[in-house]
Specification:
Blueprint (H helix, E strand, L loop, with lengths): L1 H45 L2 H8 L10 H10 L10 E3 L2 E4 L10 E4 L6 E8 L6 E4 L8 E3 L10 E12 L5 E13 L2
Length: 186
């Protein structure tokens, strides 16, 4: 009789172990399902990140110091050919006085660009009042002997040039911001 009692205890222990194993298995499966849901949620959330990243870079100004970094970032992004633009301009413009034409200011819309363009120049920190509004520059066209729309006092001005890449109806497709230094001698 003692053998029968021991066998029943072994069966009970085995069944209890199986129940514990089943519970552990269910917990592991539950954690795996929750983990999978978290991963799917993150992937769905990351779908919107390219737009967010573009929005974060909205106020980035390309300077000589960060140009290489910006080029590296741009080469990793998807290129939209219609808004491709190569900036060709002198980075420093000198004026004899606030109303004279500059002898070294030069802006070109290279023939290799995909759109016509115009630009506005603002003194850094004041993008409400343009000191220059260019006409449309067609592909292959350029501007030189540039005069400012607003006369400036003698001094050096750190400025932001905002290019507008436009379609055939002159609707802005994209914008590009670069820095330019304006020096008014007197």
């Amino acid at each position: 009789m003692s053998e029968g009692i021991g066998q029943n205890q072994s069966d009970s222990t085995a069944k209890g172990g199986q129940k514990k194993g089943l519970i552990v298995l269910l917990v592991v499966l539950g954690v795996a399902v929750i983990g999978l849901l978290v991963v799917v949620g993150i992937l769905l959330k990351d779908r919107n990140k390219p737009e967010e990243k573009a929005e974060e870079r909205r106020n980035v100004v390309i300077t000589q110091e960060n140009a290489q970094e910006m080029i590296a970032q741009m080469t990793q992004e998807e290129v939209v050919p219609i808004t491709y633009y190569t900036v060709t301009m002198t980075p420093e413009w000198h004026f004899k006085n606030g109303e004279a034409a500059s002898e070294d200011a030069y802006v070109e819309n290279a023939i290799s660009n995909s759109t016509d363009v115009y630009f506005d120049i603002f003194i850094k920190g004041d993008e409400e009042n343009a000191i220059l509004k260019s006409p449309i520059i067609p592909r292959g066209g350029h501007m030189e002997a540039i005069t400012l729309d607003k006369a400036l006092d003698a001094g050096e001005y750190d400025c932001v040039c905002i290019y507008h890449l436009v379609d055939e109806e002159q609707n802005t497709l994209s914008t590009l911001r670069v820095t330019v230094k304006i020096i008014v001698e007197g």
